[in-house]
C-alpha cells in the first residue's frame, strides 16, 4: 500500500557518509510528489549499528544503507525480500505497520545503468572486486547474459561467494587475479573497488583500447580508473547513474511498498533527481529517462 504519511524521516547510514548524494536525490523526489518528508545523512559504524538501530525515532520510515552496513543489518531484520538472501546484502530498510523489511536495489541500479549503455549481452565482462556491490552487479549481469564474466580479485579465495553466486545464476565465469590478468580483450570493465582505486595490475590499462568502463565510484571523480581511461575511444560511466537508479528503487519501496512497482509521475521524479545532482560524471553516455 502506498505510504503518504506526514512528517516521516528517512536516513542514509554508513561510514564514511559525508560524500553521499542520496539526500539531494530523495528530497528532489519528495518535492515533485508533494511529500513533507525529510532525508539526511547519518554516520553509523558497524559497532554503532545495533544501538542506533534499536533506538530509532518513531518518525523514521526507512533507511538507505551503504558500507559497511549492507551485511550487518541482515541479522537485525527477519523479513528479507527480493534478492537480499541471494546477495547476502541489503541497501534498503523499510518500516511499515508490521515492522521492518529489507530489500536490495543496487542490482537494479547497476542493470539500468548498463542498459542505458547498450547492455552486456554476448559480450566479455571483467568485474573488479567481489564484495556486496560486486554480487549486486553479478545479479544484474545474469539478467543480461554476457558471453563470459571474469572476476578479477587480489586472491581467488576472496571471490568464492561471488563466484558461487554467478555459477548458481548460470553465468559463464572464471576468476583471475590482478597480477595475472587474461590477455584476451574485454568489452566491459566494471569496477566495484572502493574509492575509485586504480589497482596495480599489469595489463589493466590496455583494456581501455577495447572496453567501456563502468566505475561504481563517483567521489572523487575522475577516479583512478577513469583517469587511466581518459584517452580511450570508449565510454566511461561513473557510479552516479547507479546511485540515481538504486535511489529510485528505494523510493518505490518507501512509497509503494515494492521496489519494482513504478511511482506515479515517475518520469518527473527521475528528471528532478538528475537535475538535483547536476551533470553526471563520465558523461560519455547521455542522461537517460525512465522506461515507458
TrEMBL record:
<comment type="pathway">
    <text>Metabolic intermediate biosynthesis; chorismate biosynthesis; chorismate from D-erythrose 4-phosphate and phosphoenolpyruvate: step 4/7.</text>
</comment>
<dbReference type="InterPro" id="IPR046346">
    <property type="entry name" value="Aminoacid_DH-like_N_sf"/>
</dbReference>
<dbReference type="InterPro" id="IPR013708">
    <property type="entry name" value="Shikimate_DH-bd_N"/>
</dbReference>
<dbReference type="GO" id="GO:0009073">
    <property type="term" value="P:aromatic amino acid family biosynthetic process"/>
</dbReference>
<protein>
    <submittedName>
        <fullName>Shikimate dehydrogenase</fullName>
        <ecNumber>1.1.1.25</ecNumber>
    </submittedName>
</protein>
<dbReference type="InterPro" id="IPR022893">
    <property type="entry name" value="Shikimate_DH_fam"/>
</dbReference>
<dbReference type="Pfam" id="PF08501">
    <property type="entry name" value="Shikimate_dh_N"/>
</dbReference>
<dbReference type="GO" id="GO:0005829">
    <property type="term" value="C:cytosol"/>
</dbReference>
<dbReference type="GO" id="GO:0004764">
    <property type="term" value="F:shikimate 3-dehydrogenase (NADP+) activity"/>
</dbReference>
<dbReference type="GO" id="GO:0050661">
    <property type="term" value="F:NADP binding"/>
</dbReference>
<feature type="domain" description="Shikimate dehydrogenase substrate binding N-terminal">
    <location>
        <begin position="12"/>
        <end position="92"/>
    </location>
</feature>
<dbReference type="InterPro" id="IPR036291">
    <property type="entry name" value="NAD(P)-bd_dom_sf"/>
</dbReference>
<keyword id="KW-0028">Amino-acid biosynthesis</keyword>
<dbReference type="GO" id="GO:0009423">
    <property type="term" value="P:chorismate biosynthetic process"/>
</dbReference>
<keyword id="KW-0057">Aromatic amino acid biosynthesis</keyword>
<keyword id="KW-0560">Oxidoreductase</keyword>
<dbReference type="GO" id="GO:0019632">
    <property type="term" value="P:shikimate metabolic process"/>
</dbReference>
Amino acid at each position: 500500500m502506498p505510504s503518504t504519511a506526514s512528517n516521516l524521516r528517512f536516513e542514509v547510514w554508513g561510514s564514511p557518509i559525508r560524500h553521499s548524494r542520496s539526500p539531494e536525490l530523495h528530497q528532489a523526489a519528495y518535492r515533485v510528489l508533494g511529500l513533507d518528508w525529510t532525508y539526511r545523512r547519518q554516520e553509523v559504524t558497524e559497532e554503532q549499528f545495533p544501538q542506533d538501530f534499536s533506538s530509532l525515532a518513531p518518525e523514521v520510515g526507512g533507511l538507505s544503507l551503504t558500507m559497511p552496513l549492507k551485511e550487518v543489518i541482515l541479522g537485525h531484520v527477519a523479513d528479507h525480500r527480493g534478492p537480499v538472501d541471494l546477495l547476502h546484502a541489503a541497501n534498503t530498510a523499510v518500516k511499515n505497520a508490521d515492522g521492518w523489511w529489507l530489500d536490495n536495489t543496487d542490482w537494479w541500479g547497476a542493470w539500468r545503468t548498463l542498459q542505458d549503455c547498450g547492455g552486456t549481452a554476448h559480450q566479455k565482462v571483467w568485474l573488479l572486486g567481489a564484495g556486496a556491490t560486486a554480487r549486486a552487479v553479478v545479479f544484474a549481469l545474469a539478467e543480461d547474459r554476457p558471453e563470459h564474466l571474469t572476476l578479477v580479485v587480489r586472491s581467488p579465495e576472496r571471490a568464492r561467494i561471488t563466484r558461487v553466486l554467478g555459477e548458481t545464476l548460470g553465468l559463464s565465469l572464471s576468476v583471475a587475479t590482478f597480477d595475472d590478468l587474461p590477455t584476451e580483450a574485454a568489452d566491459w570493465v566494471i569496477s566495484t573497488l572502493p574509492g575509485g582505486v586504480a589497482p596495480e595490475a599489469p595489463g589493466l590499462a590496455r583494456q581501455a583500447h577495447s572496453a567501456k568502463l563502468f566505475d561504481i565510484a563517483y567521489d572523487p571523480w575522475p577516479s583512478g580508473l577513469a583517469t587511466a581511461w581518459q584517452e580511450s575511444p570508449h565510454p566511461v560511466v561513473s557510479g552516479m547513474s547507479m546511485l540515481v537508479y538504486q535511489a529510485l528503487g528505494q523510493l518505490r519501496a518507501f512509497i509503494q511498498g515494492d521496489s519494482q512497482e513504478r511511482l506515479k509521475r515517475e518520469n518527473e521524479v527521475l528528471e528532478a533527481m538528475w537535475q538535483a545532482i547536476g551533470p553526471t560524471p563520465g558523461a560519455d553516455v547521455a542522461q537517460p529517462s525512465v522506461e515507458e
